Amino acid sequence: MAHQPLQIADICLPHNVILAPMSGITDKPFRAMVRAWGGGLVVSEMIASHAFLQNVWIELQKLKGAAQDEAPLSIQIAGWDPLMMAEAAKLAELSGAQIVDINMGCPAKKVTNRLSGSALMQDERAVAEICRAVVGAVSVPVTLKMRLGWDDAHKNAPVIAKIAENEGIKLLAVHGRTRTQMYKGEADWACIAQTVDAVDVPVCANGDITSLEDASQAMVQSGAAGLLVGRGAMGRPWLIGKIADHISGQAVRKDPTHEQKIDTMRAHTDAVLTLVGTTGLRGLRKHFAAYCDYLPQSDELRSALLKSVEGDEVFEALSAYQSIITDGEAA
Ligand SMILES: Cc1cc2nc3c(=O)[nH]c(=O)nc-3n(C[C@H](O)[C@H](O)[C@H](O)COP(=O)(O)O)c2cc1C
């Protein structure tokens, strides 16, 4: 069955696959690569609302460069205090977010210890208060990302979804794991169907979608209106566009050539150097490693990139690899 593009309040997205928020990964340069390869909506790294009061500068760095030129951009906020969340949402809107996303899915201890992230799913009253405060603070639509629940005995995503919808949340994303699962086991796409059935707003399924076949299965089993793809897009910023083609019933665009992949790595590096400078190369290493996973005979390239501390070293390593490919050795 062909699926329609997602609509979030009055924002009509180009398709129904969204780049999932990933701390330390979905920064502006990576979001730009995903968009260049046909990604639609992208979600920023999460911004910790309490940190605005404690360490404003570090949190603001994550928003650096987020602006209208990124449209459509969703900025994700995390926290436990409705007033602080409301302030963070206002800042996100001022920074250019067309959508604000509330994090109720993060399992990290530093987040859950203060009853934020996925721990909030244990306190339904707090969910309502936070949603109400954030929705009331901004003029852009607000969405919410969560898990199936805290553990197998408390899979309350459908209840949380209904509360959120009643408070004005316009789209929900559900990672098909509980908090206690962390990232273990497999995402349960079928279980997301209960949340889809509980609300009228669109629900997106998330977790372990790394291929076109996974995407079809996740759509069928969950009955969701769309998908969120995270780790599968690392090293493959073109995957989201391909999945969108596939589930909308269109001809699926081809994988990029090796040359195009190398050009993407150059553009990604350029974007990081422009935004952050050479210190940003360290953060690029996980992306480099992921890109190399999808390139043949890339061991030397990988080790050169993971050692690089200057932009020139990166570009030289890419050119050396490119000459191997164009000579046909790695084809
Ligand atoms: C490195 C990393 C960072 C993440 N950071 C966030 C985050 O900031 N906010 C959030 O809601 N989820 C975060 N997640 C969870 C992802 O958005 C997603 O729900 C999860 O990875 C499952 O989807 P996937 O299998 O497509 O990656 C993170 C996941 C990873 C691997």
Question: What features would you describe in this structure?
Answer:
With 331 residues, the chain is of the alpha/beta class. The chain has 2 domains: 7-247, Alpha-Beta Barrel (TIM Barrel); 258-326. 45% of the residues lie in helices and 15% in strands. Strands 3-10-9-8-7-6-5-4 form an 8-stranded parallel β-sheet. Strand 8 (171-178), helix 8 (189-198) and strand 9 form a beta-alpha-beta unit. The radius of gyration is 20 Å and the shape is globular. The mean pLDDT is 91. Bound molecules: flavin mononucleotide (FMN). The site of flavin mononucleotide has 22 residues, from strand 4.
Structure described in brief:
The chain has 331 residues and is of the alpha/beta class.
Assembly of the depicted chains: single chain
Task: Could you tell me the CATH topology label of the largest domain.
Answer: TIM Barrel
Question: Mean pLDDT, nearest integer?
Answer: 91
Instruction: Report the strand count.
Output: 10
Strands in their spatial order, largest beta sheet: 3-10-9-8-7-6-5-4
Query: Which compounds are bound in this model?
Result: flavin mononucleotide
Please summarize the sheet with the most strands: 8 strands, parallel
Distance linking N and C termini: 36 Å
Kindly estimate the percentage of residues that lie in beta strands according to DSSP: 15-25%
* Gross geometry: globular
Give a quick set of tags describing it.
single chain; 331 residues; alpha/beta; TIM Barrel; eight-stranded parallel sheet; two-stranded antiparallel sheet; 14 helices; binds flavin mononucleotide
